[in-house]
Amino acid sequence: MQKALLVKEIGKPLSLGTRPIPKPKARKVVVKVTAAQVLPHDTASRDKGLFISNHLPSVPAHNIAGIVQELGPDVTEYSIGQHIYGQGDPLAVTPDQCGLQEFAILPTNMSAPVPDNFSDDQMVTLPINATTIFCALFHQNWLGFPAPFSPESKTFDYGKQKLVIIGGNSNCGRFAIQFAKMVGIGTIIAIASLSGEQELKTMGASHVIDRYSQTIVKEVQEICGGEEEVTHVVDTVTYDFDLAMEMVATHCPSSIAVLHVADVTAQLEKRGKKWGRGSGVSGWKNNFDEETGKLYWESLGKWVQEGKILIPKFRVIEGLDEVLVNEALDSYIGHKPVVQAVIHPR
Ligand SMILES: NC(=O)c1ccc[n+]([C@@H]2O[C@H](COP(=O)([O-])OP(=O)(O)OC[C@H]3O[C@@H](n4cnc5c(N)ncnc54)[C@H](OP(=O)(O)O)[C@@H]3O)[C@@H](O)[C@H]2O)c1
Fold this sequence. Notes:
The protein is of the alpha/beta class and 346 residues long. Helices cover 27% and strands 23% of the residues.
């Protein structure tokens, strides 16, 4: 048995308990968890049962780093003792792929070695948010820009593209700015508090619009060169997507990627924007084919080493401390700026 922080009842704080040490199946490994990061969905799981209401007790945290302890069948990518980081599955029926415990499972297709000169703590801040935004920008189901390592990327004119990021200052928004800058998108408009303006511009935003402005739509359309020029929007924060739907083109095709479950396409049609499409990104799972997924995970560490993707600010909680980890989950309530917590389970 091992120690774990458990959600035993929805709406109640996490509490320390024990559960079995998992065994790895094919294409999976067991890691001794060195670092785990909680995200807003973990708060929604604890408080409202998101993903977990039918399989309690559950364990939060799907961003996981650790030392490989045991290899499942057919694992050739890793060796025992190697430090790796990756993402577990929040929808899995058992909480084996969760980080707030001493040992966890990571799938080989959703993980990578911790790169030289970076720590487990640093790399654990990336997986779910970076993967979600990578899908939002580069997967055909969402905005569909050619992925940076794809053959199309060699000839695609990224410089002519315009991208609007609603929630530029959120952790996901910052990844969106950096991925867009990395491929060379010419106009990157972040809607955010102006307190973060300079930092977001350093990351790659070409324009920052005050999220409290009464004229956001007009300002975006002016920057893009007209109402029909607003065609690619990622909304990392809202639940109603009104702003995104209002700003996109009426007569030209447009795409909106959002991070909460929604059929934006149907809502756009009701507004007379029948060329628009949009839906929620499922960043918790592997959306790519095997080769693209492999290239993404191989590249992420390289992009970090090259300084193209920055490690977000984080703080450390030592041990499976019920009080401190519950407070870290509480900090996500209300969509305020948060310095994310990285937890050392042992
Ligand atoms: N679908 C998926 O797979 C997936 C994956 C990852 C995350 N998510 C979800 O995406 C959401 C964002 O996650 P996160 O970790 O990036 O959040 P976060 O960093 O905790 O977001 C907080 C930030 O959002 C900004 N914000 C709040 N309301 C805003 C608004 N109306 N307009 C513009 N900015 C606003 C605030 O920025 P200011 O400082 O500018 O006020 C604040 O700093 C969460 O709900 C999360 O659950 C979904």
